[in-house]
Amino acid sequence: MVTQARPQIPLVDYLELGDHPHLVASECTNCHARFFDRRNACGKCGELNFTKVDVPTEGILRSFTIVSFAAPGISVPFVAAIVSCEGTTVSANLVNVTPDPASIDLGMPVHLTTFSIGLDSAGTEAIGFGFEPTATAPSTKE
Asked: Which of 8, 26, 37, 45 is the most exposed, fewest CB within 10 Å of its CB?
């Protein structure tokens, strides 16, 4: 008996699912600034034309904060992060890591990961994304 896969939708429009999940940015055709979500004009130069570009799934942790207070229903603490993916800045949660500064190194390599957010009443699964430490990277903490 073949089990049919549950239908999935990405939590945000710029997350592409499939065999190799990745993010897709809108890149300004003039200055090459990259943005997520829809834009009417480039926030850097004002150009009106964009192309879609795949964002690398590997990145470097540039900044983070540990969030201890959040809206009702949001589990805390969690790590909010800024990741540089070959020059494209991505805001996302750092997942699969202890939310403690001793467990996190600025400059550590991370990679994109996806996870289930939940199901709707029709059984469609919403998929979110975050970044997690790259397992092969040695820690720089002593």
From this structure: 37
